[in-house]
C-alpha cells in the first residue's frame, strides 16, 4: 500500500519532481563543468588503482575486480572515459531536470555513483545515490510532471503497434 501511494499519488509526484530537479542539477552542473573546463580522468584512475579501497584491519583490497577493470580497461581507454563521464553526467542531469527518460537517467546516475564509490570517492555520491534510489523507486510517478508524461503514451502506442504487427504476421502467415 505504501509503494502504491509512492508510485501513484500526485503529491508524491510533486515531491519527487523537486528531488529530481535537484539531483538533475547536481549531475548537469558536474557534467557541464567537465565539458567546458576540460576533464582528464587519468590521475583519478591512477590514484584509484594505486590506492584501492581496502579493509583497514587486513589491508585486503575490497573490490579487486573493479580495480582490475580500472587498470586493464579504463586506464588504457582513458580517452573514452574522458568523453563518457562528462557527457554521461550532463545527459543524466538533463534527463532528470526535464523528466525525460527519468528512470533511465536515475539508473545511470546510480550506476555512476556506485562506480565512483567503488573507486574510493565518497564526496556527494552516497547522498546522490540515496536520492537516485528514491526517484527510481517512484517509478513512472517520477516523470509525471515532465517530458515522460508526453513520451509514455507515444512509447505505449509504438509498443502496441509492434505487438499487433507481430500477432497479425504470426496469425496470417
UniProtKB/TrEMBL annotation:
Keywords of this entry: Membrane, Transmembrane, Transmembrane helix
Pfam families tied to this protein: DoxX
Topology in membrane: Multi-pass membrane protein
Principal place of residence: membrane
Transmembrane regions: 9-28, 90-115
Location within or outside the cell: Membrane
Protein name in UniProt: DoxX family protein
Species this chain originates from: Cohnella soli
